[in-house]
Amino acid sequence: MSDQKPGFFKRLFGAATPDQPSPPPVPTPPEAPAGAFGAPAIAPDRAPEAEAAPALVASQAPAPASAAPPATEPRSWWRKLKEGLSRSSSQIGQGIVDLFTKRKLDEAALEDLEDILVRADLGVAAATRITEAVGKGRYDKEIDPGEVKAILAAEVERTLAPVARPLVVDATKKPFVILVIGVNGSGKTTTIGKLAAKLTAQGRSVLLAAGDTFRAAAIEQLKIWAARTGAAIVARDQGADAAGLAFDALKNAQESGADIVLMDTAGRLQNRKELMDELEKVVRVMKKIDAEAPHAVLLVLDATVGQNALQQVEIFSRVAGVTGLVMTKLDGTAKGGILVAIADRFGLPVHFIGVGEGVDDLEPFQARDFARAIAGLE
Ligand SMILES: Nc1nc2c(ncn2[C@@H]2O[C@H](COP(=O)(O)OP(=O)(O)OP(=O)(O)O)[C@@H](O)[C@H]2O)c(=O)[nH]1
Ligand SMILES: [Mg+2]
Fold first, then answer.
1. What's the 186 CA to ligand 1 centre distance in angstroms?
2. pLDDT in tens, 193-233
3. How crowded is residue 15: how many other Cβ atoms within 10 Å of its Cβ?
């Protein structure tokens, strides 16, 4: 990570931009309200608008020395994303090819298209919109499968653009506390490791809080990430109280002057009340130290669970006030379309997506890239 240029990080983590206007209504990409977590949706790396990414505020964070990312970086991410989403895109793409090759567009074809999209987890609302867009002005005409994919990509991008918002780390909040939550095995600890790598490479001091006190292996897993990224770590023994650990970690971060706390938590099923109560307690204890903490609550969702992710967003939001989403395991699943359904239903910012287990397999979420990848376009 150390060879990444600052311009790359400028796009990874926006800075607080206190004088930005309030968000306009959907579907225009919303801009960050004062002090909130979010920033204008960022254009894909390959587009010229990429340079319009929000600048870091000089007084709050060091100015980048060079804006240019390495020439190979965006393309390699695009490849990973495209390959990662290939199961989702081939399922949709094959369905479209089968449906529209040498066939006139009629009501039955549109219904079949809607079925394909619903089966690919995009949700009924998006499937209906996309089908209507395909049908518009094209009845009884032949339509090329490539044209259908282009319409699909455009509609998916329109849905996702408002939620593709970077995680804004406000340097005036010190430490900036990020609580990471989600069900068992969704990718929380790995995501924390990947984020720690990006943040430490950006020159920020990071403290990891080993809040998954249930499993000794979870504490060890986080210690490995700390050693690997140079982040500090606060851990207690297995079985310790997670809220107590949160208290220790925030105190330690305040005293040591850490910029950012990334707090891991034990995975919990959204229907286990006692575990959800414990999460609420973690948040309450954090507020005793800093009334505004946690400054960001990231819900990590595993794309492979498909429709179940909708319920996870709903319940975790209620308990812990989710401010943004990270979707992992988009590689190798045919259920990548669930991100579209989640955007439609909740409108929560999607900060990052994961397409693999490696440290570089997490990137800021960009609507256009995702839309084109899932539609199987180059
Ligand atoms: N393929 C793939 N695997 C991932 C991704 N993110 C995480 N994983 C893997 O998913 C598994 C679970 O990841 P963890 O980070 O341990 O998940 P967790 O949410 O911390 O799990 P618990 O602590 O048990 O709740 C590990 O094997 C990770 O390497 C991803 O984007 N793609
Ligand atoms: Mg974990």
1. 5
2. 999 999 999 999 999 999 999 888 999 999 999 999 999 99
3. 22
Ligand with smallest separation from the Cα of 183: 1
d(CA 69, CA 79): 17
Token look-up 């920033």 returns 39
Q: By the 8 A CB rule, do 333 and 11 touch?
A: no
What is the C-alpha separation between 33 and 334, in angstroms, rounded?
35
| Distance of alpha carbon 292 from alpha carbon 267, whole angstroms | 24
Mean pLDDT of the chain: 83
Q: Residue 356: nearest ligand to its CA? A: 1
Asked whether the beta carbons of 231 and 207 are under 8 A apart, the reply is yes
CB contact set of 277 (below 8 Å; sequence gap of 6+): none
The pocket around ligand 1, CB under 6 angstroms, is made up of: 182, 184-190, 212, 218, 267, 300, 328-329, 331, 354-357, 361
pTM of the model: 0.84
* Extents of the domains making up the chain: 82-161, 167-373
Distance 205 CA to ligand 2 centre (A): 22
Average pLDDT over every residue of 52-80 = 47
Give the Cα separation of 338 and 60 in Å (integer).
36
Q: CB–CB of 178/261 below 8 Å?
A: yes
Regarding the domain with residue range 167-373, which homologous superfamily does it belong to in the CATH classification? Answer: P-loop containing nucleotide triphosphate hydrolases (3.40.50.300)
pLDDT by residue (tens digit) across 221-272? 999 999 999 999 999 999 999 999 999 999 999 999 999 999 999 998 867 7
Q: What are phi and psi of 366, to 5 degrees?
A: -125, 125
Q: Are 151 and 110 in contact (CB under 8 A)?
A: no
List helix spans (H) across 161-296: 188-201, 216-229, 242-256, 273-289
Q: Which CATH class is domain 82-161?
A: mainly alpha
What was the pLDDT predicted at 272?
A: 78
Terminal Cα distance for the chain, rounded: 27
pLDDT digits (tens, 9 = 90+) for 279-338: 999 999 999 999 999 999 999 999 999 999 999 999 999 999 999 999 999 998 999 999
